[in-house]
Amino acid sequence: MSASEGGEYEHYEAIVVGCGPGGAAAAARLAQHGIETLVLERGVEAGSKNVSGGLIYAEESAPYTIDDFFPNFREEASERPITDYEIHNIAGRKVKSYDLTDLHEHDTEWCDAVLRRHMDGWLEDRVHELTSENGGGLLTGVRVNGLLRENGEIVGVTCDELDPITADFIVAADGANSELARDAGLMDWEEPDEWFQGVKAVVEMDPEVINDRFDIEEGEGVAHLFSGDLFDDVRGGGFLYTNEDTLSIGTVFHLDSLVAEQAEPHELLDALLTHPLLAQWLDEEYVELEYGAKLVPDSKKVAHREPYSDRLVLVGDAGGQMQAQGPIIKGMNHAVTAGALAADAHAVTRGNADAEAAGRRYTTMLEQSGTMGKLRPRRYEMTSPVGEHGLVTRAIEGVLGSPVGSAAVGNRLSNRLLEKAYNSPTLVGMLPDTETGYTTLPSIIGEKQGRTIHWDNEVEPPTLEERIGDLTYDTDVGNPHIRLRDNSVEASGAAVYACPVSAEDFGGGCYRSETVKTNGGEETVVSLDTQPCVECGTCAIVADTEWEHPRGGKGVEFRQG
Questions:
Q1: Taking Cα atoms as reference points, which of 372, 392, 18 lies closest to residue 179?
Q2: How much is the pTM?
Q3: Tell me: the pLDDT tens digits for 11-66?
Q4: DSSP-derived secondary structure letter, 265
Q5: Is 454 buried (19+), middle (13-18) or exposed (0-12) by CB count in 10 A?
Q6: Which among 194, 114, 184 has a CA at the least distance from the CA of 537?
Q7: Residue 230's closest CA among 187, 176, 273?
């Protein structure tokens, strides 16, 4: 929208869109600089639109951590500190586990499990207090739908619920589906291999039961990662994190691999939940509180090197700042750092007539702080053209599948070397995005080095229909936020199985395939119902759709996140 169309608008020195950890850090740091800041959040409460794995780290090398701005964060907003960390390589019923403590504690001051509704809701109250001191504040239930421009230059934002608002500085912390990043031409949804899809269940469990089953004390927590053949040939893996009185159990897969294998996300999650290994932690009294999903940008490929345009800067997932490198999964901490650095960049360039001065300074700060080096490691960029080349991948797969390769993986020396490799940040940062690291090698490790699991898993996960039915929705009747541009199977059929609330043989969900009669024959087409949508954005990449967020407060509302 052009500013000239509407005349004078309400003005703030800074606008922050989104009150996740990145937006909260940006707003808090702006408030510390005495800058009038308005925070706009589209959920009914911060966190009601957010899903994360989720672990939040405080890195020793980071210039900022979340407790720098919110001193009581760990006591009030997080779940459990993570004190134990393991990865499990699975081949059928055989499992080989490695302790990842060295990798986990590398550059780590602390690491806590979190649930986004509780965490972000707590941050919302603190952010409102801080920003109100400088004449700003925080509004929920407001969807920022685009950028306001004047003479082609970004000068503010447009909203569904409010008149446009102008600002000297705009922070887009509105997540992986950022409408501001797309409006500015800084993000596209064209390449599935640039994205992961995360699907998660929050499982109810009494704190004492958690302590007993995971062999931990009060004030301790564990993180488990899973890879191998239980996910067939889909590139990715699973996770389990202990919260105070729940477990977060989920899967994260490369989106292009989901499409190529025509895998259904809810079935991959169920494969993890029902594996015999999890019988030591779960039983027939399994109670699933919430099912959710999100897109995760692969920072190695999409972390924006210059995350700004005019007065707009991108923070967190909106800027592709999600570090997913094998067993290293970090995002919220980088969003915090980025948000605070963005605020500092504006503070030191305040009053500069050049609209891009803050953005350029922010870019420099991301580089100098080492943040960009973590998100886009040069070692990966150097090795990926070879490591991800089809001929190389097939050759490696051939060697590993041979008797010689299997024998090499199975000896005692390789066992020690593999544990060291898993705990090497350098080697993990070089891991190519191929089936070798996610499926083939873990399966061989499990088969050759693993112990046989004899437990029987009695968990019966809810059906997809039950999971959708248990979610909370405020449907925006008459205003669908997704529209099919092409309903042919060729253009949009992948959404039927890649969408986490749809399935090939499921009559509900967002996307469905159906046979319709045409002139002289029949045709299979795709239909869309946005009511059960969890707003992950998967379909925007794999189907020919027009996608936007629902209006403020509408759509799905996550109670756990």
A1: 18
A2: 0.94
A3: 999 999 999 999 999 999 999 999 999 999 999 999 999 999 899 999 999 999 99
A4: H
A5: exposed
A6: 194
A7: 273
Contacts of 301 by beta carbon, 8 Å cutoff, 6+ apart: 191, 193, 194, 320
Name all contacts of 72-75 with Cβ < 8 Å and 24+ positions apart. 73/122, 74/110, 74/112
Contact 108, 427 (CB under 8 A): no
Q: How many CA atoms lie less than 13 Å away from 140 in the CB half-sphere?
A: 18
Residue 27 token pair: 């707003």
Distance CA 356, CA 378 (A): 27
Q: Are 510 and 543 in contact (CB under 8 A)?
A: no
Dig out the tokens for 484 from the structure: 């099919």
The beta-carbon contacts of 543-546 under 8 Å, at least 24 apart in sequence, are: 543/484, 543/491, 543/492, 543/493, 543/494, 543/495, 543/511, 544/484, 544/485, 544/486, 544/491, 544/492, 545/482, 545/483, 545/484, 545/485, 545/492, 545/495, 546/482, 546/483, 546/485
CB atoms within 10 A of CB 458: 12
Residue entry with tokens 């989104």: 18
Sign of CA dihedral 37, 43, 46, 47: negative
- Compute how many other C-beta atoms are within 10 angstroms of the C-beta atom of residue 155: 23
H/E run at residue 75: helix 73-76
CA separation for the pair 127, 174 (Å, rounded): 16
Residue type, 86: E
- Residues 536, 481 contacting (CB under 8 angstroms): no
392 pLDDT exceeds 50? no
Predicted confidence (pLDDT) at residue 188 exceeds the cutoff of 70: yes
Comparing CA positions, the residue from 240, 212, 192, 292 lying closest to residue 55 is: 240
Question: pLDDT per residue over 324-340, tens digit each?
Answer: 888 889 999 999 999 99
Q: How far is CA 381 from CA 171, 331, 400, in A?
A: 28, 20, 24
Amino acid at 281: W
CB count within 10 Å of CB 363 equals 20
